[in-house]
Amino acid sequence: MKRVAILGGGPAGAFAAEQLASAGWQAVLFDEKLAWEKPCGGGLTYKAYSHYPFLLENSTPKRFVTETVLAAPRAGAVSLQLDQPLLIYSRFDLNRLLLDRAERAGAQIEQARVLEITRQGSRWRVLTNHGSADADFCIVATGARNPLREVGTQLTACDTMSALGYYVPGEQSMIDIQFLPRLEGYIWIFPRCSHLSVGICGKGEPAGALRKRLEQYMTEREIPWKHGSFYSHLLPSLHTASWRRNRVTGEGWLAVGDAAGLVDPITGEGLYYAIRSADLAVRALLSEVTGLAEKMNLYQRLLRRDFAGDLEFGSRLARRVFHGRFLWASVPARMVQFTRSSPRFSAIMRDLFAGRQSYLDLRQRLLKNLNGSLYEMWMSLGFRRLVPRKAA
Ligand SMILES: Cc1cc2nc3c(=O)[nH]c(=O)nc-3n(C[C@H](O)[C@H](O)[C@H](O)COP(=O)(O)OP(=O)(O)OC[C@H]3O[C@@H](n4cnc5c(N)ncnc54)[C@H](O)[C@@H]3O)c2cc1C
């Protein structure tokens, strides 16, 4: 293969371009905006920067956050100290960092909107608003709003959630996560270097209703959102059945990142999966297996083994996490209460935030720790009754 066109220059496309160019392949990347403030929290977990240390070791501005406050209706709030910080970037800076790396590795970066791709024999013709180019292979990295209908995941309404928010002036040291009644999603406040990113994501609820919930929350918290700038976007959140029929490869193309639907259906984390899928895609292309069809099969197998199987399982848990009940209270309320009272449960939450706890093993770990966690919670309740807190 001689020339690979990478359609989209977000984290997935930029990382794919860097890896291909580093291996000596001819990589040309098209993005209509290049580095831009894509609507996003910008949060990177320990899993992301431990796999890809350059995300930590660079001079690009970013925040390191080691405290999360979790809150749920009827359970109050609890502070969770993280043993590994969450990194928070502005998306302009993160995209710039990744595009610069791709360019330094030798990729050709073009600011252009891809209008259409057409198959010509065994090659592609990429038509952009600035002209056209030929390629032997296409990597589709055009994000959740992929306009190229014939390639990438075919997202239906039940495979997405809305995500929107405000960048507002302000400063705080911790992350806030607020669960809300009857919402398969949550509100977040992420501190960035010069402002806060306050947002909400939710499945099955119109964007307008989510926006109202968020504005009410910010008004109650006295967050000056009327001075902020609004953002909104789609977030892939594949339904369990959709993981099985997910279209991530085809003749002469493969898809990575959001364009392949590769987002955690519970947390909405997508940055790590964008970079990771690009990494796996390039490994498959560079592999020794002969034939393009075999390379595509290999990419699908690598994805499944690495994280897609886990995310598919996560999609089965999502409703239960947000709408389920445990011991006569909502699951989010119990999560807050257990985090407050049980060191064992707090350790599980810390691992979930770091990305060290898979969904496939979560149930087993929770069951294994259930007796201990309940014991710790009841002991803590009993202790609080015996030694009541001083009146304020
Ligand atoms: C509100 C919100 C908050 C989020 N917060 C987090 C978070 O805190 N942490 C996290 O891990 N994930 C988060 N995500 C998910 C994360 O933003 C995505 O998973 C991630 O951006 C996916 O990267 P990507 O490269 O696949 O796609 P994108 O980042 O969307 O990049 C796609 C690129 O393709 C370009 N493009 C599209 N169409 C064309 C075209 N026709 N021609 C040329 N270029 C084109 C676009 O300009 C864009 O640069 C959030 C998402 C949302 C919506």
Global morphology: globular
Straight-line N-to-C gap: 71 Å
Helix fraction bin: 25-40%
Q: How many strand segments?
A: 19
CATH fold naming of the largest domain = FAD/NAD(P)-binding domain
Would you summarize the structure shown here?
This protein is of the alpha/beta class. It has helices at residues 11-22, 46-51, 91-105, 207-220, 240-244, 271-286, 292-323, 331-341, 343-354, 362-386; strands at residues 3-7, 26-31, 43-44, 63-72, 76-88, 108-111, 114-120, 123-128, 131-135, 137-140, 160-168, 175-178, 184-191, 196-203, 229-236, 249-250, 253-255, 325-326, 329-330.
Tags for this model:
alpha/beta, 6-stranded mixed sheet, 8-stranded mixed sheet, 392 residues, binds flavin-adenine dinucleotide, 3 domains, FAD/NAD(P)-binding domain, single chain, 19 strands, D-Amino Acid Oxidase, Chain A, domain 2
Secondary structure blueprint with pairings:
Elements: E1 3-7, H1 11-22, E2 26-31, E3 43-44, H2 46-51, E4 63-72, E5 76-88, H3 91-105, E6 108-111, E7 114-120, E8 123-128, E9 131-135, E10 137-140, E11 160-168, E12 175-178, E13 184-191, E14 196-203, H4 207-220, E15 229-236, H5 240-244, E16 249-250, E17 253-255, H6 271-286, H7 292-323, E18 325-326, E19 329-330, H8 331-341, H9 343-354, H10 362-386
Parallel strand pairs: 1-2, 1-10, 2-6, 4-12, 10-17
Antiparallel strand pairs: 3-5, 4-5, 7-8, 8-9, 11-14, 11-15, 12-13, 13-14, 16-17, 18-19
Flavin-adenine dinucleotide binds at residues 8-13, 30-33, 38-43, 113-114, 141-143, 147, 163, 165, 199, 233, 235, 257-259, 263, 268-272, 274.
